[in-house]
Description:
The protein has 191 residues and is an alpha+beta fold. It is 30% helix and 38% strand.
Amino acid sequence: MRYQISGKQLDIGEALQTHVENELGEIVGKYAERPTDATIVFSKDAHEYVCEATVHLSTGLSTQAKAKNTEVYAAFDGCAEKMEKQLRRYKRRLKDHHKERSQPVELSEASSYILAGTDDSQEAEPESLQPVIVAEMETKIPSLSVGEAVMQMEIAETPVLVFRNEGNKGINVVYRRDDGNIGWIDPAANT
């Protein structure tokens, strides 16, 4: 597994890098077959250290975790604990999906935009109804089954996931509803 360990405005020593590689390698090796790479970023938020980790698996799925603590090693350990919990929860599914899938998840290119939020304190009408684009980025849309999409959304702890449905090749969305259930939007099913 390839590791990319870095610090934002923070010096990461050899001892911490070795600790991260050993601990994360053990955790991921126990629950997932053939992880490809891991990105771990340490940063400082006021008086706390923040550790964010992303591990990409050979199936194309990714897992993410984030933790904070006043000590840098404790921040990583908390992050690793969260990742281990996610991987343990989905171990059977990860291995089952990997056996069915002969090729890694196919990714399609797409543009992603961040729009400026509205300021409710302004009483005046906006000059234009066009939203202000704050940032524009490239993103990837994975080609997954609905079950894999739900699992990826839960592993990444995101409220919504856009994906290409492997069954009908259409763009679909899964999202977490307010009642705790998962919603699935499949525009192709209505045509």
